[in-house]
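Technical annex, item 7. During the second reporting period the consortium partners agreed on a shared format for inverse folding records so that results from different sites could be compared directly. Each record opens with the tokenized structure and is followed by the designed sequence. A conforming record, contributed by the partner at site C, is shown below for reference.
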């Protein structure tokens, strides 16, 4: 039993208990500490290797460097600092000699939260998934608001990738949006996936150095918006960035900034298969979570994407055999008048289901006229956009698995683009962004081949099961390949049986996080949840979840390697002894081989 000399010093051993070149493990005040005696000096170190918990008394010391004997992480014996960033520094305790007794200060205060914030940053810098997982689990366990790690990831991603905003930051934002839908124990896992995606996206990339705003007199936002669109038109990323930064510095509101960027994002058709507008919308959503004080660096990171985006009017599919561009161009000219006519009729438009059927037909001219007609009848911009999202979800719900596997993404791109337009219009009723509704509808039209033949929306069937059973069934389905139609049917049956939609979405979210990070699967699940919220109580809400479940089932199971890393971190956080399990497994394997 250790005795206390004066708080916080605790007697650990007699000098004679620890031979030179040797060590002794002691329990002090709830800590398992190893006392090393090396070259005549005493050192006290937490006996749990910070990497994966291996006992450090089983390591070796040479030239004051302690090496762990599991994965060979190395530590300065005196400071605990590691030479292997994937392992983390080990905690050391100050030692005092009093006569022939070794006393240890066990109460050195550690700011563990600050340390784990730093480790989260290092995890992103070095792209170390286990470090990220450990940091996020620790921080959220200490009741850190998830917005904190999210903001750190947002700042990091916006500055450390010269190409700017990409899939990593989009994934991180999707994960942030999913958090409220997930069970609390799944939330750190979602953040870990998001931050890991940012780290992967930035790994090996040169950093981004932002441009300055124009001098103070440049405050005319109408002119800056016009300049931005001109510069994007000629693919001038630097000119575009300076406009964005200047607009932020000139005090543009979040709505004005959204209006400006959404206009530039819809001056050409379906840019980069819809990714550009989706990324733009996600950047605004990211600022809602991370803080609009980051607007300058985050929105400036979009400029390169605007300038380099692929314009679909330059693609064959949009020009032949039907040239969609003039059809859309004429429709765009009609939007202001249609909006004006419909203005007095708003509030009673209910022709959404019929419009969805028209959008799924195969006449693009009729499609464009139907959209204009809906605006004249009083459909709001948001209602119109929501209806196109429903049509896009139907394409996925009806998707036949006889299509090429990569065609899932064709339907996915339309759905996520349509959803981004919808969310964008909810943010700001930008007249230019209404063109995105027509672009999304054109893409729905182009995707019609994916529904030949068409899989019907599942009907309620089979025996009634309780929600828990349905959730287990979902997990089992996704353990097997290509259970696409069964997954869609499970959604319909579960909702029919009265499962709480929140429980079903939490189950889908957990199933998503079990898999290795797949950008498109994350996108569709997040977009489907967003649309469910908008369409709750209507058949369209069910279709959105059917679409998400079918896409998820088509892309599961994966190797689940990221889940394994996360599980290791979670078990370490709980104090489990993973090395004992590994040693037992090794013993069993050795016995089996020697038989
Ligand atoms: S290096 Fe120590 S547990 Fe891995």
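Designed sequence (site C submission):
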């Amino acid at each position: 039993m250790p005795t206390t000399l004066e708080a916080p010093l605790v007697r650990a051993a007699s000098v004679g208990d620890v031979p030179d070149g040797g060590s002794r493990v002691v329990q002090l005040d709830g800590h398992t500490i190893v006392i090393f005696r090396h070259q005549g000096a005493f050192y006290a170190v937490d006996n749990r290797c910070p990497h994966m918990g291996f006992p450090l008394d089983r390591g070796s010391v040479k030239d004051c460097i302690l090496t762990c004997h599991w994965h060979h992480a190395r530590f300065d014996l005196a400071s605990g600092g590691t030479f292997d960033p994937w392992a983390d520094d080990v905690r050391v305790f100050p030692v005092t000699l009093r006569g022939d007794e070794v006393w240890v200060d066990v109460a050195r205060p550690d700011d563990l939260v600050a340390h784990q914030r730093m480790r989260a940053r290092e995890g992103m810098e070095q792209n170390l998934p286990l470090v990220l997982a450990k940091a996020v689990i620790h921080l959220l366990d200490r009741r850190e608001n998830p917005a904190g790690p999210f903001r750190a990831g947002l700042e990091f991603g916006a500055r450390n990738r010269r190409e700017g905003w990409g899939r990593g930051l989009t994934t991180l934002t999707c994960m942030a949006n999913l958090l409220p839908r997930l069970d609390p124990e799944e939330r750190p896992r979602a953040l870990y996936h998001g931050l890991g995606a940012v780290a992967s996206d930035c790994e090996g990339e040169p950093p981004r150095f932002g441009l300055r705003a124009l001098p103070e007199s440049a405050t005319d936002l109408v002119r800056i918006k016009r300049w931005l669109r001109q510069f994007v038109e000629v693919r001038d990323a630097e000119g575009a960035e300076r406009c964005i930064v200047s607009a932020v510095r000139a005090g543009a509101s979040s709505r004005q900034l959204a209006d400006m960027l959404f206009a530039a994002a819809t001056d050409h058709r379906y840019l980069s298969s819809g990714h550009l507008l989706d990324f733009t919308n996600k950047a605004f959503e990211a600022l809602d979570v991370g803080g609009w004080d980051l607007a300058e660096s985050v929105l400036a990171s979009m400029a390169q994407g605007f300038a380099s985006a692929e314009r679909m009017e330059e693609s064959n599919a949009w020009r032949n055999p039907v040239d969609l561009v003039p059809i859309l161009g004429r429709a765009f000219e009609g939007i202001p008048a249609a909006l004006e006519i419909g203005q007095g009729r708003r509030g009673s438009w209910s022709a959404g289901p019929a419009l969805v059927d028209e959008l799924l037909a195969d006449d693009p001219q009729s499609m464009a006229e139907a959209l204009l007609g809906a605006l004249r009848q009083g459909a709001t911009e948001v209602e119109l956009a929501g209806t196109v999202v429903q049509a896009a979800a139907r394409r996925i719900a009806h998707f036949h698995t006889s299509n090429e596997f990569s065609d899932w993404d064709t339907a996915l791109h339309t759905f996520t683009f349509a959803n981004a337009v919808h969310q964008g219009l909810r943010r700001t009723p930008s007249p230019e962004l209404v063109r995105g509704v027509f672009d999304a509808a054109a893409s729905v039209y182009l995707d019609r081949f994916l529904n030949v033949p068409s899989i019907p929306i599942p009907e309620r069937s089979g025996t009634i099961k309780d929600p828990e059973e349905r959730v287990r069934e979902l997990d089992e389905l996704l353990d097997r390949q290509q259970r696409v139609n069964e997954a869609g049917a499970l959604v319909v049956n579960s909702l029919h049986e009265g499962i709480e939609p929140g429980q079903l979405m939490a189950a889908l979210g957990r199933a998503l996080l079990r898999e290795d990070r797949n950008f498109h699967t994350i996108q569709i699940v997040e977009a489907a949840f967003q649309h469910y919220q908008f369409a709750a109580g209507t058949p369209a809400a069910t279709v959105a979840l059917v679409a998400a479940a079918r896409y998820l089932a088509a892309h599961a199971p994966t190797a689940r390697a990221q889940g394994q890393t996360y599980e290791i971190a979670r078990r370490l956080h709980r104090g489990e002894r993973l090395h004992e399990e590994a040693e037992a497994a090794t013993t069993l394997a050795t016995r089996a081989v020697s038989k």
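The first helix runs from residue 112 to 126. The CA atoms of residues 93 and 515 lie 40 Å apart. All partners now use this format for quarterly exchanges.
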